[in-house]
Amino acid sequence: MSITGDRYVGAYEGHTIELVRNNWNKTLKLFIDGREAASEWQIMPYDLTLTAEFEHAGATHVVTARSTVHFLSSDDTVEIDGERLSLTKVK
After folding, report:
1. Under a CB-based contact definition with an 8 Å cutoff, are residues 13 and 56 in contact?
2. Radius of gyration of the chain (CA)
3. Taking all residues of the chain, what is their mean pLDDT, rounded to a whole number?
4. Domains in the chain, number
5. Could you give the CA distance from residue 65 to residue 83 in angstroms, rounded to a whole number?
6. Dist. CA 20–CA 90, nearest whole Å
7. Is-contact 8 78, C-beta < 8 A?
8. By percentage, how much of the chain surpasses pLDDT 70?
């Protein structure tokens, strides 16, 4: 976890999924195709789950982002319909 925050990006069938932690304003945000889909303040470190939905080819997909806090770090994951999405950490 960097001092200012982290940004993870993944792709799912042409859609861009981003999980962004901002340590300055203490937020965790989930973006789907550049639009904010879910967010929450995280003033104190605690485990957090964000959930959103999007449509693709006539089907609704559920996106679940989890941030599990460990001492001085966190483990961030994103799942789409229960399957883990491969994420790349971006500066």
Report:
1. yes
2. 13
3. 91
4. 1
5. 11
6. 10
7. yes
8. 97
- Rounded to whole angstroms, the Cα distance separating 54 from 68 reads 24
Which structural domain range is residue 59 located in? 5-90
The residue type at 45: P
Could you read off the pLDDT of 10-42 as tens digits, one per residue? 999 999 999 999 988 999 999 999 999 999 998
Contacts 24+ apart (CB under 8 A), 36-45: 37/63, 38/65, 42/67, 45/69, 45/74
Q: What is the CATH number of the domain that holds 63?
A: 2.40.128.180
Contacts of 87 (CB under 8 A, 6+ apart): 8, 9, 10, 19, 76, 77, 78
Task: Kindly state the average pLDDT of the residues 65-79.
Answer: 86
pLDDT for 91 equals 76
